[in-house]
Amino acid sequence: MYDYIKGHITRVTPEYITLEQSGVGWLIMTPNPYAFHKTDTIQQVFTYLHVREDIQLLLGFKSLEQRELFKKLITVSGIGPKGALAILASGIPSQVIGAIEREDESFLVRFPGVGKKTARQMILDLKGKLHDLFSETDFPDEDSTLLTMAENGALDEAILALEALGYSQRELTKIKPVLEKEDFDTEGYMKLALRLLLKQR
């Protein structure tokens, strides 16, 4: 089992990143690919290998805490890897954990693919089991990684990534006018869009 991989990120797409290490390009699915950037600097990605009879997926996370929350989420009936990635894409694990501990179903059903039944199952399965993992973690403010320098096609890339997470065209059309007023990079658009989407659900 892989704990993490260190290498150079050579590709960032709406659904995955490619991390090159020793001549091998690892295709890694992540909650928000645009949280990663192509640079000459060696980067560390925490990984999880998901294996089923018909598929093998290598998933990657920026932090150990994010990966541990992912592993907890996929133990819940009704939440697969894609659903867990969509939840983590919000970038605020502390809010997800807080909602579970408070039994706040109305917050949890805002995520793609999470209905009332799944939200209740998350609470039943995970309440009281996450505090030890995250009580000492200082999660960054949700605005802390917003940048003001736009990249070509940054908004289009963000929209594609949100579609890959399961958000509908109808939902994205509602928030696009707000996004178009801003001047962010792709990660910045993603974070703003996710906040808006969570509010409207």
UniProtKB/TrEMBL annotation:
Q: Supply the source organism for this entry.
A: Filibacter tadaridae
Indicate where this protein is primarily found.
Answer: cytoplasm
Q: What is known of its domains?
A: Has three domains with a flexible linker between the domains II and III and assumes an 'L' shape. Domain III is highly mobile and contacts RuvB.
Write down the SMART domains for this protein, in alphabetical order.
HhH1
Q: According to its UniProt record, which protein family does this protein belong to? A: Belongs to the RuvA family.
Residues in domain Helix-hairpin-helix DNA-binding motif class? 71-90, 106-125
Q: Which gene encodes it?
A: ruvA
Protein name (record): Holliday junction branch migration complex subunit RuvA
Query: Pfam families, from UniProt?
Result: HHH_5, RuvA_C, RuvA_N
Which InterPro entries does the record associate with it? DNA_helicase_Holl-junc_RuvA_I, Hlx-hairpin-Hlx_DNA-bd_motif, NA-bd_OB-fold, RuvA, RuvA_2-like, RuvA_C, RuvA_C_sf
The UniProt entry's GO CC annotations, sorted and at most eight, read: cytoplasm; Holliday junction helicase complex; Holliday junction resolvase complex
